[in-house]
Design brief:
CATH superfamily of the largest domain: 4-hydroxy-3-methylbut-2-enyl diphosphate reductase, catalytic domain
CATH architecture of the largest domain: 3-Layer(aba) Sandwich
Number of helices: 11
CATH class of the largest domain: Alpha Beta
Radius of gyration: 21 Å
Helix content: 25-40%
Number of domains: 3
Largest sheet: 5 strands, parallel
Shape: flat
Oligomer: single chain
Low-confidence stretches: none
Length: 312
């Protein structure tokens, strides 16, 4: 029987997600429905459904947007080819790319322009990876594991640089970068790591929580990379980790033998979903629900320049 729920802090929305969701909401108010969004604005099905109800239309490709319409680029970023395609269709574009992803794009361009092979550490098929690789496709190679580093072949081992996806496992990424340094002693990398502050903070908060729980519940959608990393982190330490999209996926039978539940949420999951999970446990007699850790994040990003200009 569950006796307590411990909430990790910090958890949930990061500054980039806050900015992206607010961007679509403001665009709908300013320009009226429909506003088109290329891909999911953030990787959370609840957020997407809510925005659809308000008049957003989500598309997979910019060619699906009617000529001259308004389209928002998601927080994960897009390649120069996508921007060019939008320009050909005379689309009004609003770029909600997280500034920390934009930083990675700039690094990739800079290294490629200087003649380096750019090793991108990330997950194949992820939208952020596709956008970053599109900045310098001829010079960029994707690496997902230490084994792939060992097989890597580059034109000039003296001129290799790396960048990373922003939502990776801290520990796994450190191992891959260490393997890269061993293979390429003159490896160049960003002065400040590319894994974003929110991903790092949420993983550290979960690490601190795990010794005290029998089960970790992570609120997030299956396509959320940072949420999946939190589940993997629990399992790597021997604690059962489960990804759920909300309280509707909970089942009392699956909690047999569990006394203490750890609860966190990915960077694209709104706090209302965590509140719903807490309410589910309260309804079943769990009185002790408390936060562990400190949420002292104060990062705020400005709205996209397109919206600031139109407001002026």
């Amino acid at each position: 029987m569950v006796k307590r729920v411990l909430l990790a802090a910090p958890r949930g929305y990061c500054a980039g997600v806050e900015r992206a969701v607010e961007t679509v909401e403001l665009a709908l108010r300013r320009y009226g429905a429909p506003v088109y969004v290329r891909k999911q604005i953030v990787h959370n099905s609840h957020v997407v459904r809510t925005l659809v109800e308000r008049g957003a239309i989500f598309v997979e490709h910019e060619d699906e947007v009617p000529e001259g319409a308004t389209v928002v680029f998601s927080a994960h970023g897009v390649s120069p080819a996508v921007r060019a395609g939008a320009a050909r269709r005379s689309l009004r574009t609003i770029d909600a790319t997280c500034p920390l992803v934009t930083k990675v794009h700039a690094e990739a361009r800079r290294y490629a322009a200087a003649g380096y092979t750019v090793v991108l550490v990330g997950h194949a098929g992820h939208e952020e990876v596709e956008g970053t690789m599109g900045e310098a496709p001829a010079a960029t190679v994707l690496v997902q594991s230490v084994a792939e580093v060992e097989r890597l072949s580059v034109p000039d081992p003296e001129r290799v640089a790396y960048v990373t996806q922003t939502t990776l496992s801290i520990d796994e990424t450190a191992e891959i970068i260490a393997a890269l340094r061993q293979r390429f002693p003159r490896l160049h990398g960003p002065a400040k790591e590319d894994i974003c502050y929110a991903t790092t903070n949420r993983q550290l908060a979960v690490k601190a929580l795990l010794p005290h729980v029998d089960l970790l519940l992570v609120v997030g959608s299956p396509n959320s990379s940072n949420s999946q990393r939190l589940v993997e982190l629990a399992r790597a330490t021997g604690v059962e980790g489960r990804l759920i999209e909300g309280a509707h996926e909970l089942d009392e039978r699956s909690l047999t033998g569990v006394e203490t539940v750890g609860l966190t949420s990915g960077a694209s999951a709104p706090e209302t979903l965590v509140d719903g999970v807490c309410a589910w446990f309260r309804e079943r007699g769990v009185a002790e629900i408390r936060e562990v850790g400190r949420d002292d994040e104060d990062v705020v990003f400005k709205l996209p320049a397109e919206l600031r200009r139109s407001a002026a």
